[in-house]
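Notebook, student rotation project (T.W.).
Task set for the rotation: take a protein with a known small-molecule partner, predict the structure of the complex, and write up what can be learned from the model alone. Partner molecule chosen: zinc ion. Sequence and SMILES entered below by T.W., checked by me.
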Amino acid sequence: MSEKSFTASSKPRSREIAILPFETYDLSEFRDSLEAAAVMYGLEPNFASDAYLTSDFSNAETQRKQRDAVRVILSVKNILRATGEKSRYALVVTKLDLFSSKSNFVFGLANRDLGVGILSTARLTEWSEEVTPSQMKERVLKEAAHEIGHLGGLAHCEYGTCLMAYSETVEMVDQKLPILCDNCKRKLRSDGR
Ligand SMILES: [Zn+2]
Ligand SMILES: [Zn+2]
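Predicted structure of the complex:
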């Protein structure tokens, strides 16, 4: 086989983002939100993967009853590599609460080099009397779009209403608009991603 034909057949699908659950989680409730987040970046969401994503527990994870976002991303990448996933990016959604070395909890995390982002709905969907299902869906859309923005090379944004603003609380998520500010839009375009 010539190198050329090999490259062509194994080429990653460059506009595709695989969207899949971590461990068992029915995403149908949030499918529209996740789809909209991908489409915002001109990406094609692909929900078709049947790879089962999982990862063993570290001592810290067992003690904290949370998953370590960095560890999960690495495990996911290994599984996707082993199953030959061809999408350029992957967004993994979990109902488990996440932490990172820098924060007690995070809504999500993304590793641009690996092309894998993770989003936790644990705190976005926490029930309270004032929160409606459509509000939960909007939160999922915003934080999914935030992680996909990182995959596309965007950093955190100082504008509190921009999708790329860093949110420490759900209230801060609710304050964001479901769009990128002009600055972030420009950055995304100039990066050519
Ligand atoms: Zn972020
Ligand atoms: Zn911005």
